Amino acid sequence: MRSATTERTALFSGMIAIGLVVLVSNIAVGYPINDWLTWGALSYPLAFLVTDLTNRILGVTSARRVVYVGFAVGVALSLYFADLRIAVASGTAFLLAQLLDIWLFDKLRRQVWWKAPLVSSILASALDTAIFFAAAFAFTDLPWVTWAIGDYGAKLAMAALLLLPFRVFIATLPAEWQRPRAAES
To answer: Residue 14 is part of which domain span?
Structure first.
């Protein structure tokens, strides 16, 4: 049986993880790897992994809590460590994309194990990429459209690659935690 303390610990861990992913990604987006990609594209998809694991294990309500608190922590830290425009663009894109991810995951949760995390991450990543790059870099001299294309390509690859840790993490949980929570809508 799941204890309330264990569920609170899992929820708090998700909140901290999301906040750190947002902070690291907001700093890393300022460092291009090449003309097509920034380092933020490699760290940000971890937010979808955390959200999807929380949604799968604790349910929609807990996943939303993780996103709201992680959003607040991540944006607050980003305002200190990153550019204001990046922080605002990131916060807006993050919140809308994560809420879409949670909704889609919940709708697909009863299908084959990989479908909910993969489809929700792919579609939410498209929304995140479009909002973030347009809001953060439009009307600058930076190659933001190129970065957005590269970023989305990296997010697609990461969505597929992160299925392995998703599956492994779920498999290592006690039996009562492995069953997906019922759809909440």
So the answer is: 4-178
